[in-house]
Amino acid sequence: CAGLRYLLQGLSFSAKYYSKHNHPQTMCAYSKIKPKKCHVLDLKSSESTCAHRTVPPGSILPWRFFSCKEGAKVPSKRKQNTSIVTTDLLHKNLLKSEQENWNDISPIYKAMTKRIKEKLEELHNMYTFNSGSPRMRFGENVYFEENGCIFLSKADDDEGNADIVFSTEDLGFSDAFIQRIRISPDQRYMAISLKSENSEEATCIIMKLGHIPVVEKVIPSVFSFEWAANDVLYYTSLKNLKCQNVFMTTFTYQKHTKLVYTEQDARFFVDIYCTKDRRFLTINSNSKTTSEVWLVDCRHPFASPVLVQARTPGVIYHIEHRNDQLYILTTHGEPAEYKAILTDNYIHRINLDTYCSGKENWQLVYALENKTKLVDFEMFGDDCIMFLKNTGCLYLNVISFVSHSVQSIKLPTWACEFELESHPEHTTSTCYFQLSSPVHPPKRFAYSFKENNLIEQAVQEVPIITNCHTTRLLAKSKDETLVPITVFHNKNSKELHRRPLLVHVYGAYGIDLNMSFKEEKLMLIEEGWILAYCHVRGGGEQGLSWHRDGCQHNKLKGLHDLRVCIALLHELGFSQPKHTALAAASAGGVLAGALCNTDPGLIRAMVLQAPFVDVLNTMMKTHLPLTTEEQEEWGNPLEDEKCMNYIKSYCPYQNIKTQCYPSVFITAYENDERVPLTGVLQYVHKLRKAALDHARRTSKKGNWIPNIILDVQANGSHCDASWEHSLNE
């Protein structure tokens, strides 16, 4: 579901996050300034769990959605205060203890840290020299972002002569990152959202462009925004990790702001985007399993939104528009995977049931094959492109609206991730995108609709990785389901059973494992490590059914999948338990922590980043703002005793016992609003006690006591960090 919310995001720059500062009202234009090297820029980012990329604009964030607010609700005011004080004191004591432990242990790794940091900086410099910022072309004007500045140049001009139209530093946002950019159709206004690493909320700054750009308006706590007309901006507000209100604001004549839409159901999250041809602005209200779309006619931006189809439980749909026709991407019908549907009836209320009953105004354009994941979708003048994933391989399907044909192109076998570039003008004849893998830096490709072929771009040569071998395996799970595994190792490595192995897992929310390029992964390959990515159920690697088969009452299937994946790797000679480490982040901590309890002998170490490790207690706390929304993933233990017992059977925190555990390294964040730090502190405390109790009871010569280390980062917010911060980690 999250992958499809990348639909046609248009002019989206994704970097990292801003800080709240003063908002000066004017800025000067700078001309003839040579652009600097790009700092951090990500056009659309995927789920990837805990990547150095952000979530795409207009998407429901795929990670844990929990507030940091703790403390039991009790009737007595006196008792309530005592409870809060006690909870706060426990939190502070645990945090202080862990910080002291970290200060004692971290010097041991000083020499290793220095060597690794130098190596990563070398690789980063080597593989980022060619990573220029994406360009957005509007007629003769080209806009691009670098180093916190937005530049404007002419299409045929040298970019060294570009003018700066916006600067985070000059406006007092020196530690801010540009997250999203939207330019009005007549290019008189530009809307920019800024975020920091320490906050979930963004501030939207509207600039009036001209000889001297001026700050027209500042809107706090904004999630998504789009121009419906030259001077009409729609935006959604984010409050307490929820996005449920849509506003409209105008900038000429009678300036005003009004509420346009409010979502009443706590399970739903609202975002907005424009269709590729800018004919409609869509208001999208989505839960984890259901969606509803309202249309705003951009030719009449003050008219009330029109409902496309009332929400139907279990049915997800998204809207695009071309040549006075609506294209609906929906899960309606069997099988419950995505299908592309065409209808002429875009003004009146549309009933999805007409598709099944064979009404003449509906036409099935395309249906996905079994176990195929729709990763992204882009509409152009006479064609649309679908990026698909099947058994670990990436495909490009081009649907022609002229010839009514579908061409399928298999992308290079080494590719594991793709990044679709921005195409503001839907009439363009070329689609640009980048391919990468954990050990292959991004390489730019283009598909030409005129030539009907795929072209590998080589503007600046990317160093070729020649010493890495990619293997794709299938492990048979407990119920005979085949689970994909992707393995990378150095071709020159001998005796692979003696090599260290790093296993990655996620398995939640229908989100794929992040397999984009990371310098640290390439470093491990060069040093003889084996990398394995286990695409277990609960994730989205094989379509929506793959997610459904691993959520709620099916969560244990993901654990079974992970177990057989690691066992198969060892059986095939990829390392052995005493040289195996398991890595997970956010909700991936559920399966990793569960395996650590049930099969600690399979691994020697576990590395977790902002892990979700106490499912039961979190889902029992209805005062948390996102507990209701999360019930579609984990279930509702408050109303269903079977659900409560089922969660209790796999919840990492609930199942810690006195036994020999692997060593554990956890990174957590003080400002994490999704996975509260208190829960991580309690998990580490309980885990360390269980490991030490086991060591005391079984004191033998050479008895191994695991290292259980927690590094609490003062900066950063839930798996999201700049290059500098992630380098330090």
TrEMBL record:
Subcellular location field: Cytoplasm, Cytosol
GO biological process: proteolysis
Keywords carried by this UniProt record: Cytoplasm, Hydrolase, Protease, Serine protease
Record GO cellular component, one term: cytosol
Top EC class of this enzyme: hydrolase
Highest rank taxon of the organism: Eukaryota
EC assignment: 3.4.21.-
Broad class of where this protein is predominantly found: cytoplasm
Any one GO MF annotation of this record: serine-type endopeptidase activity
Domain Peptidase S9 prolyl oligopeptidase catalytic: 516-693
SUPFAM superfamilies: alpha/beta-Hydrolases (SSF53474), Peptidase/esterase 'gauge' domain (SSF50993)
One Pfam family, short name: Peptidase_S9_N
Ranges of residues in domain Peptidase S9A N-terminal: 123-453
Function: Serine peptidase whose precise substrate specificity remains unclear. Does not cleave peptides after a arginine or lysine residue. Regulates trans-Golgi network morphology and sorting by regulating the membrane binding of the AP-1 complex. May play a role in the regulation of synaptic vesicle exocytosis.
UniProt protein name: Prolyl endopeptidase
Species for this entry: Ptilonorhynchus violaceus
